[in-house]
Write a structure and sequence with these properties.
50% strand; 2 domains; alpha+beta; Porin
Length: 210
C-alpha cells in the first residue's frame, strides 16, 4: 500500500515538474516575443510644472523607459525657490494616438502624439513659493512667524492628458495638464495654504531618447 502511494506521489511530482517547465517556457517565450515587438528605449527628460499646492514651480530632471505605448519615468523634485531638492517624482504615460502610425491618413502627422498620464510627487522638505509667501505675509501681518523658513512634508497625485511634439529625430517637446490634489503630512497648518485640497497641474517637458 505504501509503495503504491509512493509511486503515485512520484508520478504527481513528475507531472507538476513537467507542468512548471511548460509554463516557464511559455512565459519566457511570451516575454521574448513582447520584448522583440516592443523594443525598450531609455531617455532623459527635463520637466517644469506648477500646481496649487503652494510650493511654486517644480523642476524635475529625470530618466524614462519606453516600451510599446507605455512610458515609465522617475526624477527629482527641485523647487524653483532656492533650487531646493524637495523630493522625488514618478510618472506613467500611455500613448493613445501616434500620428506616425495612424491608419487614417487624414489624421496622420508623424510629429504628434497624444497620451494620458498619472503621476505622483513626494516632497520630503518643501518651502512655500514666493507667491504663497506674499499671500501669507499679507494676511498675517501681525504674525511673528518666519514664513521664509517653513518646510513641508507632502504628497501630490495627478492624472490627465498631454501632447508630444517631435522637434528632432530623438527630441520631443511635451505639454500636459491634469487634475488631482495634495495632502500635507507635516508642517505649519495655521495658514491660508490648504493642507489638503484638489487642484490643477500644468506641465511642460523636453524629452530626449537615446
Amino acid at each position: 500500500m505504501k509503495n503504491l502511494e509512493m509511486s503515485q506521489l512520484s508520478k504527481n511530482s513528475k507531472f507538476i515538474s513537467s507542468l512548471n517547465k511548460i509554463i516557464l517556457s511559455v512565459v519566457i517565450a511570451s516575454t521574448s516575443m513582447y520584448a522583440q515587438e516592443n523594443k525598450a528605449r531609455l531617455g532623459m527628460s527635463a520637466t517644469s510644472s506648477v500646481t496649487g499646492s503652494g510650493f511654486g514651480t517644480i523642476y524635475s530632471p529625470g530618466i524614462f523607459l519606453t516600451t510599446g505605448k507605455s512610458l515609465f519615468e522617475a526624477g527629482l523634485s527641485v523647487q524653483k525657490r532656492k533650487l531646493n531638492v524637495s523630493g522625488a517624482r514618478i510618472n506613467y504615460e500611455y500613448t493613445v494616438f501616434d500620428g506616425a502610425t495612424s491608419p487614417c491618413s487624414e489624421y496622420s502627422n508623424e510629429r504628434l502624439e497624444l497620451y494620458f498620464f498619472a503621476n505622483a510627487t513626494y516632497h520630503n522638505s518643501a518651502y512655500l513659493s514666493k507667491a504663497q509667501l506674499r499671500l501669507e505675509k499679507q494676511v498675517n501681518k501681525e504674525s511673528s512667524m518666519k514664513f521664509n523658513e517653513l518646510k513641508y512634508n507632502a504628497a501630490e497625485m495627478y492624472g490627465g492628458f498631454g501632447l508630444r511634439i517631435k522637434v528632432l529625430n530623438k527630441l520631443k517637446w511635451v505639454n500636459s495638464m491634469g487634475v488631482g490634489g495634495w495632502k500635507t503630512f507635516k508642517g505649519e497648518t495655521n495658514l491660508e495654504r490648504a493642507c489638503t485640497d484638489m487642484g490643477l497641474l500644468f506641465s511642460t517637458k523636453i524629452m530626449y531618447t537615446f
